Amino acid sequence: MIYTIIIAYLVLTFLAGFIGYKKAQETPEDYFLASRNLSSIVLFFTFMATNFSAFFFLGFAGQGYRIGYSYFAMMSLGTAIASLAFYLIGFKTWKLGKEHGFITTTEMIGDISGSTILQWLYLIITLVFTLPYMALQPMGAGYILNELTNGTVSYELGAILLTAFIVIYVFIGGMRSVAITDLKQGILMFIFMALAFYLISDAHGGFINANEQVFNMKPSLFQLNGPEGAYTPQKWFSLMLLWLLCVPMFPQMMMRYFISKDLKSLKNASILYGAIPLILFLFPVAIGVMGHLSF
Q: Tell me: the pLDDT tens digits for 140-185?
């Protein structure tokens, strides 16, 4: 059964790449930026899917287990702050891209600054520090496939297969394929994360009952600063600053400022990005907290 589900998912993802390929125009702007024509909903889902990746599926539950609901509070507030930066930085980036036809952030920085040194510095920094982040995705896929198949598919093979598959569908259809896939994956993310939350809560007598049991076991998981002061005021401040200055500047996020159909679409997507995680982030963190009843 599990192999049927995995194959069906891969086929649907490949079809998304093929749809992007069929709709593609033979221009760099269309291939890399989907002709700058994404609406609010699609833009929101591609924002979300490109940033809420393996660390969301695997890391959130782990942190919920270790740190508790303070992690949910920190991540939700940080994401809301990041969405504000999307609005401020993204608007200016979209306008510059539209006016000057910029396709990459590196191109934009080099042109508006007039500095080749700054352009290359930005390029090198983003390449170096994006690679570890990108590596998390095939690592996460490898762990998930290995677990779902009870070890039949090794961690290494799973990571290689998923990476190759992603490269193929992105290569075929460009940003349009990515956006279609992100929309599909974002919807699936909501559905299955909510379903997992419901099933695990129900297995422990309901969400409230489960949390009462965990509270009696480890009340520190319900404190704002977490167990043993995991999140001091200094850490809260530094992390909020990180969200404001770092997340909006991720190269994969900067590219998405260019692909909005108009400023209204970018504004709506930014608002959704700040609001939806208030619900979505609760699911995996709560699953991690309730995990103390099973592990």
A: 888 888 888 888 889 898 888 888 888 887 888 788 888 888 888 8
pLDDT for residue 79 is more than 80: yes
**What percent helix, strand, coil does the chain show, rounded to 5?**
85, 0, 15
Distances (CA, A) of 88 to 74, 179, 248, 270, 276: 21, 22, 10, 10, 19
Closest CA to 253 of 8, 39, 49, 31: 49
How many angstroms separate the CA atoms of 45 and 61, rounded?
A: 21
pTM of the model: 0.86
Amino acid at 81: I
Q: Which of 63, 76, 53, 67 is nearest to 135 (CA)?
A: 53
pLDDT band of residue 20 (cuts 50, 70, 90) is low
Query: Where does residue 293 rank: exposed (0-12), middle (13-18), buried (19+ CB within 10 A)?
Result: middle
Are 87 and 270 in contact by the 8 Å Cβ rule? The answer is yes
Which residue intervals of the chain are DSSP H helices?
2-23, 28-33, 40-51, 54, 60-66, 69-100, 105-113, 116-148, 155-203, 207-217, 233-245, 251-258, 263-275, 277-280, 282-290
User: Taking each helix axis from N to C terminus, what angle separates 207-217 and 282-290, rounded to the nearest 10 degrees?
Assistant: 50
User: Residue 150's CB: how many other CB atoms inside 10 A?
Assistant: 8
Q: Report, as an integer, the average pLDDT of 1-13.
A: 78
C-beta separation of 13 from 178 below 8 A = no
